[in-house]
Amino acid sequence: MTDHISENTILRLARYLRVLNKLRSLGFVKVFSNNLGDAIGVTPAVVRKDFSTIQIHGNKRGGYAIDHLIEEISRILGKRSDQPVVIAGCGRIGTALMEYTEFSKEGIQIVAGFDSDPERLEPEGDIPVLDISRLPDFVVENQIRVGIISVPDSAAAAVFESMMQAGIRGFLNFTTVELKCAGRCPDSVCEHECVVHNVNISLEIENLFYLVHLKNRLQSS
Length: 221
Prior knowledge:
Blueprint: H1 7-25, E1 30-31, H2 33-40, H3 44-53, E2 64-65, H4 66-77, E3 83-88, H5 92-98, H6 102-105, E4 108-115, E5 129-131, H7 135-142, E6 146-149, H8 153-166, E7 170-173, E8 195-198, H9 201-220
């Protein structure tokens, strides 16, 4: 079914799921489309359309059962109780991600970090930091499917290739190098069905400055 769901819908489903888990933790059992829409910044019509896409239908008076929504959205997103992720590059960004405690609340577990700097290695740490040369074997042995890349730009392509060959199929790339499956395929999707999300923090901040400037200019005109 996910083959027919747009990427934007998938992203919204993930946001719905986060809200639903919080509502359930507060003791709620029902939710309405306007509640979810307000929570993530979309209209109730968009919420209803998204749920209709995955064959979930509520009613105007009773709304949606939260447990059912969580079960179905989790199934669509392929979420398990524990989703292991590895990080290649344990500098400032990598370390910050490893120390981010909110991941565990979302069912995401950083199981290991990898680096080439001997001073950063901590094999016995709560989250072990291992030599980058051990990454392929670790990925295979632990069946890791998702990885984060935060290495220096000069190493990005080689680390990406190594991770992909080891079996990782989902990548979050924090380098400024735009990775597209080593250039072998368009649109960041390769013959191995890899998916790459390139996150250029500097570019995102520049875009924010531009949008703020544009908004101010329109308001003053």
